[in-house]
Amino acid sequence: MPTAKPPEEATTLDALRRAAASCTGCDLYKRATQTVFGEGNPRASIMLIGEQPGHEEDLAGRPFVGPAGRLLDKALVQAGLDRRHVYITNIVKHFKWKEKEGGKRRIHEKPGRGEIEACRPWFDKELWLVQPEVLVCLGATAAAAILGPAVRVGTARGRALSSPQGIRTFVTVHPSAILRIPEDAERAAEMGRFVADLRRASSRSGKAARPSSPSRRPGSGSSKGAPAR
Q: Which segments of the chain does DSSP mark as H helices, in order?
């Protein structure tokens, strides 16, 4: 499978976003409405990483604006975080979907390893440009992409880990998983845990935008999945 190659001259998020708009690194672009790039504070201390855009994100061209995004917004407020002060993105930038049998609704389909790897250069450069202090992996796909396939949300959740770039990393559920919980009490309890996860990540970051520091670029650090100091 082909792999995207962001142009070297894309040295800002805006330039990278424009370049990603014409990405054909895998076949997902053929059925997606558009590339859905990350958004938020370009000097954010916290980067939230999901799996891929959904139906509403694909139409709007923005990450986390559908039902899961609205739940995330509520959780961020409860955790004392302002969405405008964090950076939100997905590992995969195009919506992978299948048609619901007997209807017109587009149903989310999990991206494959090849599609994740094809899209990886866009995320890697996004990470390099933002230089966050803390990563928050929302769900299993993001956690596996950042920390390796052996990582499980249930066992990694609540621990301060380290990405291969040496960035403090936390793992939690994807907001869509909370929405799928049928019982009100159970869903409320899981929402509380989710908010606590975001607070924990916030407590380990500067929380505000940081001045440019050319010497601090992700690229050197502890091994995959190692506890962060």
A: 13-20, 55-60, 67-78, 113-130, 140-147, 153-156, 175-179, 184-203
| Whether the predicted pLDDT of 227 surpasses 70 | no
| Angstrom distance (rounded) from CA 141 to CA 143 | 5
With CA atoms as reference, report the closest residue to 39 among 69, 71, 3.
69
3-state secondary structure 68-107: HHHHHHHHHHHCCCCHHHCEEEECCCCCCEEECCCCCCEE
Q: Report, as an integer, the average pLDDT of 63-67.
A: 97
Each domain of the chain, given as residue ranges in start order, spans 13-203
Question: Does 223 score more than 50 pLDDT?
Answer: no
CA dist., res. 219 & res. 164, Å (int)? 8
Query: Which CATH code fits 13-203?
Result: 3.40.470.10
Please name which of 126, 103, 100, 169 lies closest in space to residue 35, comparing C-alpha atoms.
Answer: 126
How confident is the model at residue 206, as a pLDDT?
73
* Confidence at residue 1, expressed as pLDDT on a 0 to 100 scale: 56
Average pLDDT rounded to a whole number, residues 150-179: 96
The 3-state DSSP class for residue 227 equals: strand
In which residue are the tokens 């805006």 written? Answer: 14
